[in-house]
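Narrative progress, year one. The postdoctoral researcher (J.K.) led the effort to move from monomer predictions toward full complexes, under supervision of the PI. The following entry was the first complex the group processed end to end, covering 702 residues in total.
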Amino acid sequence: MASELAALLQEIMDIESVSGNERELADLVEARLSGLDHLEVFRDGDCVVARTGLGLGERVVIAGHLDTVALLDNLPSRYEERPEGDVVWGRGACDMKGGVAVMLRLAEEITEPSRDLTWIFYDHEEVDAARNGLGRLSRNRPDLIEADFAILMEPTSAQIEGGCQGTIRVELVTTGTAAHSARAWMGVNAIHALAPALDTLAAYVSEEIEVEGLVYREGLNAVGVSGGVATNMIPPSAVLSINYRYAPDKSADEALARIEAWFPGYELHVTDSSPAARPGLDRQLAREFVTAVGAEAHPKYGWTDVARFSELGVPAVNYGPGDPSYAHRADEFCPVADLDTCAAALRRFLS
Amino acid sequence: MASELAALLQEIMDIESVSGNERELADLVEARLSGLDHLEVFRDGDCVVARTGLGLGERVVIAGHLDTVALLDNLPSRYEERPEGDVVWGRGACDMKGGVAVMLRLAEEITEPSRDLTWIFYDHEEVDAARNGLGRLSRNRPDLIEADFAILMEPTSAQIEGGCQGTIRVELVTTGTAAHSARAWMGVNAIHALAPALDTLAAYVSEEIEVEGLVYREGLNAVGVSGGVATNMIPPSAVLSINYRYAPDKSADEALARIEAWFPGYELHVTDSSPAARPGLDRQLAREFVTAVGAEAHPKYGWTDVARFSELGVPAVNYGPGDPSYAHRADEFCPVADLDTCAAALRRFLS
C-alpha cells in the first residue's frame, strides 16, 4: 500500500504545478475521478470538486491545494531509502502533494462511505489570498463547500492540528514636524513618538488561551519599522508595522479592539486581517475523527485555509502527511509512512 | 556704496559656480586681485588666497566659499525693490556670494589695514567634507591659513555667530533571532530591543550650555530607523540612527562618551563626526571685532567651516550678509542693506 501511494505521489509531483500552472494536474485529477459512478465531479477554473450523493445526512469535506511554491532545482521527485524510513523527496512532497495523493487514492477507493464526502482539489493557495481557489469556489459555488466537518490535508506530520490562530497586521503611524537637526526644538521627532508603542511591545508577555481543550499561544510583534528622511533632519513621520497572532476565542474585530487598547492615541491602519478558526473539537464528528485517527489534537499556531471553513460555520482540522517545518524548503520531503498512516486513519473514519 | 556692492554681487552670481564648476569665478577673483600691489595671491585648485604682508604682528583671515548648491531655475540674478528694502535675488545671493562680494570689494579697497589680512575664496563647500577646498588648503598650505582670528562670511543676517556646535552621528544596532511570527517565541525581536533607546531619546531634555558668554543648545535625536524583513517574520536586526549636536565645551571624544553613557549595552557605530568650535570671544581680537561690528554675539547651532579654524587653534566667528534660513532655497536672496552693513563693519575693524 505504501509503495502504491508513494508512486502516486511521485506521479503527481512530476507534473509541475507552481501557482498559476495547475491546469495539467487539475486535468489529471478530473480525468481520474470523472469516470467513477460514486462521484459527481465539478470544475471551477483549476479547482476540481468530487462529491458522493448518498443522502447520508452528514457530509465531510476533505480539501487540499494542487499548487506549490517555485522550484528550487528540486524536481523531478526522488524515492529515497533513509535510515529513519523511506521518503519521497522534491518540490511539493511536503506541501502538500502527499495529502493530495492520499485524497486522490481514497476518493477513488471509498465507494461506500459512512457519511457523504466532498473532495476539493484547489488552486492558488501559495499566493495572495485574493486569488485563492478555495475562496473563489466559496464565492462561485458556496453549496459545494457546505459540510458538517472539514479536513484540510496540509502537512501536520499526521497529527491533528485543530483550528488556526488569526492574524492581523496594523501600521502604527506617527507624525511630527520636520526641522534641521541642529535646531531640533523647531521640530517634533516622529521616531521618538514610537517609544511608548515599543515599550508596550517589549513588555508584552505571550498569552496562552485554551479553546475547546487546545492551548493556543498568542504573539504581538513589531515586524517592521521605518522613519527618517535625511541624516540632518528631524523625522516628520515614522511607521511601525505590528502583527498580532491571536487564539480562536476572538473575532477579527475583537483582535483589532485589543490592538487599539494596547496602543491608545496612535493612528492605526489595518493592512491585513485573517480571522482565526475554532478547532471545532466539541462537535460529534470531530470527536469521532480524533478517535479514528487515534492521535492527540494540537493547536495550529499559523494561519491556514481551515479559517475559510470556519467562517462558513464548518468546523475544520488540519491533518496530513509531512513535517510542516520542511514546507517551502528546497529539501522538502514526505515520509512514506506518513502517507500510509493518514490513508489508514481516513479510511477508518470515512468507511 | 550699496548699489556698487549689489552690482558686484550680481556679477558674481551670474557666473554660475555650482560645486565642481568654480573655475571661472576663481579665475575672476584671481585676476582682480593679482594686479594689486598690496596683495600676494596664491592659487590651490579653485581656491584663491590673497594676503597682505605688512608685518603687523596680528593676522586676520576672512574666508568664504565660491560654490553654490544646484540651480532651481534661479539664475540669472535679479535686483528687486521690496517694501522691506531692496534685495538681490537668485542662486547664491544668500549662501554665500553676498559675503564673497563684500570680501572681494574690501580686499581691493583696504590697502593699509590695521592688521595683516588673508582673504580666502575656496571651492567645494556644499559637498561632502572630504572635497572641501578649505580642508584641502589646510593640508597643502597650512601656513596660508595661520592667523590670530578668522571671520567666515557665511550668512548670519549681519549678526555675529560665535563658534559652532559639533555633530556626531551613530548607528545603534540591535540583533535578534529570525522566526515565523506565528511562533514568535522561537525568535528574538530586534525592533523591540530598541525600546530602551527610544525611551532615552523621548525623555531627553535639550541642555543649554554657556561657553564664553554664548548659550548653546544641544540636541539628541533619532534621524532614522529601520528594521524588518517580511511581514510574517520576527525581525533579526534593526538600526536606529542618532544625531547628537553638542556645545563647543566638548571634544568629539567627549561627545561620543556621552552617547555611550546614554545607550549602555548597545552596539554603536560612529558614522559621522565633526568637532565643535569654541567662539573664541575671550580673545582680544574677537572683542575688538564685536565692538567694531556693534552687534551682540549669538551662538551658532549648526556646523560650519569655522570648526576647521578652531581645530588649528584659530578663534573664528560667522559673520555675513543674508538670512541663513533662506540658504539653499529656490527663492534665496540677500538684502542690499546687509551688504552695506557688513562692509562698513569690516572696514571699521580692519582699517
